[in-house]
Amino acid sequence: MEAKSKKTVLWKLFLSTFYLSTFTFGGGYVIVSLMKKKFVDEYHWIDENEMLDLVAIAQSAPGAVAVNGAIAVGYKLAGLIGVVTAVFGTLLPQFVIIAAISVCYQIFCKNFIVSQMLLGMQAGVGAVIAVVVYEMAGEVAKQKDAISWIIMAAAFLAATVFQVNVVYIVIASGLLGFLRSKYGKRKIS
Questions:
Q1: What is the pLDDT of residues 14-52, one digit of tens each?
Q2: 3-class secondary structure, 64
Q3: Residues 54/72, Cβ–Cβ less than 8 Å
Q4: What are the backbone angles phi and psi of residue 44, rounded to the nearest 5°?
Q5: Alpha carbon distance 174, 77 (integer Å)
Q6: What is the pTM of this model?
């Protein structure tokens, strides 16, 4: 990548992650939908399948989903400097907002209007998370792969019906994916 093009990509990456982090309320799952719109639909930096992989990696790695997602996109686009740029863009707004809130904490926690706004945000966040789930399930459905459907259904049942810890579900799903990959390679060879 030439220097001017790389600077342009880094600047867009910083602005994108800064914007997404500034205006995303509700945690990492909300940002996934916005990242998809920005990085897949608008900039075409990654495709749908890479986005699913990114979400899986971001979800299963320790740390915040937003930061993990920014690391994955930043690394794909520009290597280590892309990682630093994306992480800085993601963390800067959070740092500033939390610092401001901590200074005014007593005012915020007792303010009726702020508490009602936060309740409204919770409802909106639930809807955004539902959209992310719908879109991700749709991508799995497009693959028309019965094993993926079975893994998705089993993970859903394990989490909702049997109350299995998400960590175990992610680990089991990763192991199943690894075994599928290994079995698939043997079959092709």
A1: 999 999 988 877 666 677 788 888 999 999 999 888 888
A2: coil
A3: yes
A4: 55, 35
A5: 25
A6: 0.61
- The percent of residues above 90 in pLDDT, for the chain, comes to 35
Burial class (CB in 10 A: 0-12, 13-18, 19+), 52: middle
Handedness of CA 59, 145, 177, 157 (dihedral sign): positive
Give me 112's structure tokens. Answer: 């009726």
Contact 39, 31 (CB under 8 A): no
Specify whether the CB–CB gap between 71 and 83 falls below 8 A.
yes
Are 45 and 77 contacting, i.e. CB atoms less than 8 angstroms apart?
yes
Instruction: Report yes or no: 28 and 71 within 8 Å, Cβ to Cβ.
Output: no
The pLDDT of residue 85 is: 97
What tokens appear for 79 in the block? 């290597």
